Fold this sequence. Notes:
The structure holds 2 protein chains of 2 kinds.
Chain A: H1 3-8, H2 25-47, H3 78-114, H4 116-130, H5 134-145, H6 149-175, H7 179-186, H8 191-227, H9 239-246, H10 253-281
Helix pairs in contact in A: 2-3, 2-10, 3-4, 3-6, 3-8, 3-10, 4-6, 5-6, 6-8, 7-8, 8-9, 8-10, 9-10
Chain B: H1 2-16, H2 22-32, H3 35-44, H4 51-63, H5 77-112, H6 117-131, H7 134-148, H8 172-179, H9 182-219, H10 222-229, H11 234-245, H12 247-272, H13 277-286, H14 290-318, H15 320-324
Amino acid sequence: MSLDGALTRRPRGAWLRLPRVWRSPLAVVGAAIAVAWLVVAVSAPAWVPYPPDAQQLPRLSPPGEGTLLGTDALGRDVFSRLMTGASTTIPLALGLVVASAVIGVVVGAVAGWFGGWVDEALMRLTDLVMAFPTVILAMVVAASLGPSLYNAVIAAVVVSWPQYARVTRSLVLGLRTLNYVVAGRLLGRSPVTSLVVDVAPNVVGPVVVLATLDVGAAVLLLSGLSFLGLGAQPPTAEWGSMISGALANFDAWWIGTFPGLAILTVVMAFNFLGDALRDAVDPTSRTERTAVGVASAPQSVELPVEEDRP
Amino acid sequence: MLLLLGVTLVTFTLTNLVPGDPIAAALGEGAAANPATVQAYVERYGLDDPLPVQYLTYLGNLAHGDLGRSLATGRPVASDLATAVPATIEIAVCAVVVSLLVATALGTVAAHRRNLVTDQVVRVVSLIGLSLPTFWLALVAYDLFFRRLGIAPGSGRLSPSLTPPPTITGLYTVDFMLDGDSVGFVDAAAHLALPVGVLSLFTIGLLTRFIRTSVLEVLDSEYVRAARAKGLGPGRVVVGYVLRGASLPILTVVGIAFGSLLSGTVLVESVFAWPGLGTYAYQAASNLDLPGIMGVGLVVGVIYLVLNLIVDVLYGVLDPRVRLA
């Protein structure tokens, strides 16, 4: 067999193989739960048994007695509010992650690509934001803007863009002096074209991993702010504020338990997915064993520690 | 130092340039409608000076240790914080110690059993730990262990029947110990158990992953193989060689974990009515209490800086190469 043939020959059935991420059970479980919640988020208002704000049922009735998951102190159906809560929280969490990723990537790319005082100024700014624990800064911002769900989202964006900026900057810094990028510039590409055509494709992977892990953080932050009364306002059906409503009714365990489980499963799904994605993208944290004596892959992807979240 | 100045600037700007109305919040809707009351209030707190002047006034007062008077409690912010900070430090330090011990054990075991069932279980457990909403967990733990099982004490730092110890460090457990009061010590420690346990779960999830990675890196190194080849037992190899080699990256993550704990306390303290920084921050934020908010931001910023300093010093202690460089 010629060398050429050996290099191009593919194992039989290779086209059937799933990409490496989907071979991890963690990713499959995570994706399944996430998709299920997305479906609920989109469709819940159409099929929940009671309107989420209707106070028409007997108060504080336990699960199984007329309603699936019981009712709260105002006679509202916990199950209906739980499902409607998905359509409150999940789209906002996804939106805020996309917004922070876009802002962070642009800032990081500009800082890393142009360097000099631009880099210095932008990075001092990110340092400043990161000098606060996220929840405390988000709380201050949300309180100053006035308590509302949308202000909580803005506060969450304010505290979460710097991590994308840092990752993007360090990637761009490493990439911009590589030969293929320099060659592109010598071919006459403008800085912006080069950034988009040559550099961007190598930044996308780590940013997507980071964003997936960040969806969980976003859900936790949003529901945490609502729990503190700085996010969703009554009577909005939102998981965090449902749990804070349970503080006043300890004996009705079902009011707080189920929203907490909802948050847990959503966050877990995205964490599973993100973790499996990281394994696929980042060779240094891979679970698979590299043979002793074989040079390990260079540290190409620097993912930050997931910092302080509730 | 520059960062500290930046921190004051951020808190100041944030609390001033955003559309909340602190005057209405402090006086109530009725009083805010009376122009004379508003005028007196504005003059008393210097709220009608231009913003840069207000900022300089704030910095000048800061240099004298004066953080202003809380609009919510009516007491000086500095003295409010003086009681709140030790309460939070007590929880955070205990949680760091507990989670470091547990996470080191889990991470080391997972690294030794890489890719086996144990490793996967540890991975899933730590991911679940990272996914738990702490405020919900606090609520469930409080309901279960205090209200239903009755094996944990209720909220606060002490049982109502006991008097707080003489203030030496502000940490109740330490103060009771210095005072030689064993009943008080046990009670204070019991009150710590639930909040610390709840906060630790998240941090354990965070730390385990990193400790596993750091241990893995060291496990394949030559000096560890040499130690094994010498015939040292597995216990001595892990403690004396592997963990020592992995201590620097672990130290970095512990610094970060401490920061995440400060965030976590905000959500957990309010459930346990723990009179710390978190509860204070929440009260200040919901009352639009500007001096209170700025004080908390400043104190947390300072804690962060001190923490980074301690981590830097410890690098030198743990690794002679850092000292020489």
